[in-house]
Amino acid sequence: MKGVASSHDGMSPVPRKKFRKPNEEKIDITEIVEGVQSGSRLFLGKAITLLESSNPSHKKEGQDLLNRLLPETGKSIRIGITGVPGAGKSTFIETFGELLTSLGHQVAVLAIDPSSSLTGGSILGDKTRMELLARNPNAFIRPSPTAGTLGGVHKKTRETMLLCEAAGYDIILVETVGVGQSETLVRGMVDIFLLLVLTGAGDELQGMKKGILELADALVVHKADGANTKLAKKTVAEYKGMLHFLQPATAGWKTEALAASSIEKTGIREAWELVRQFEKTVKESGTWEKRRQSQTKDWFRSMIADELHSRFFEDPAKRDGVKTLEQQVLEGKLTVSQAISVLFE
């Protein structure tokens, strides 16, 4: 009979519970806040999904949620990790994360891939690439979508990071899957930035932008195992020599280089000890807090620019005006500056 569940043991039919459709479901912010504070990965996922929603009412609820959790944030070590193609970032992060959880830490991994909206990218395979860490009860892996633009990193990744901190994750690993501008953006939201490289420093530097080297607080020569072990040591020495000629990424800290192997699990603990030494040194100098304040201010200003852009193009008259003036510029009837002046009058 419709609306009841049949019984095979002769008992009376049990009325079937009626559930709201997902889009009709009332969001209980207090329940989600309490769930996140309890460390529930389920509620943390719900909270992140709410913040990522483009629904206007969800946006308001998401910000209310985040505001209520703000007192619980800011207590983690935020580590950015990037690397040249083939450097083994995912393998390193998994091995590094497993070490950290074994030491009693709660680890959250956020992966950024600006290209993922077009290709699906490796961001969709994060849990496949880090199977052990994905099953670890003390770890949380989450893709950080950029909505097809690097600007999206500012809002979504930062807010996801805050939610993870509120859930008790004391180490946040931010992986850049894409290349180029994403490294600069991630540098602007973490405390320490690790760059993974391979053996053969001379060959690598030819294909590596000097700017990326200058962002790094530590260089990890990865895959330093087997036949590569001896060459890795030589590569570390070469990088140490080169780093003398570069401006340190963090005031009061000398950029370090070390060798590591995720397969043999060598150099991984040393990498963590280097992070702790960095934390101690930079906190004592006051640079840690100054950097965080500067990053928050930059985030605030970038959000102003994002909001202005969004509201401008939400105005139908402005959108139509852009098309008309664009055509006049292409036809040589107006200069670009003249068209901009008309648009903003």
Automatic annotation (TrEMBL):
Q: Which family does it belong to?
A: Belongs to the SIMIBI class G3E GTPase family. ArgK/MeaB subfamily.
Q: Which PANTHER family match?
A: METHYLMALONIC ACIDURIA TYPE A PROTEIN, MITOCHONDRIAL, METHYLMALONYL-COA MUTASE
This protein's GO CC annotations: cytoplasm
Q: Which NCBIfam families match?
A: lao, PRK09435.1
Q: Per its UniProt record, what InterPro entries does this chain match?
A: GTPase_ArgK, P-loop_NTPase
Q: Where is this region: Disordered?
A: 1-22
Q: Name one GO molecular function term.
A: GTPase activity
Query: What is the protein named?
Result: Methylmalonyl-CoA mutase metallochaperone MeaB
List the Gene3D superfamilies. Answer: 1.10.287.130, 1.20.5.170, P-loop containing nucleotide triphosphate hydrolases (3.40.50.300)
Return the Pfam families for the record: MeaB
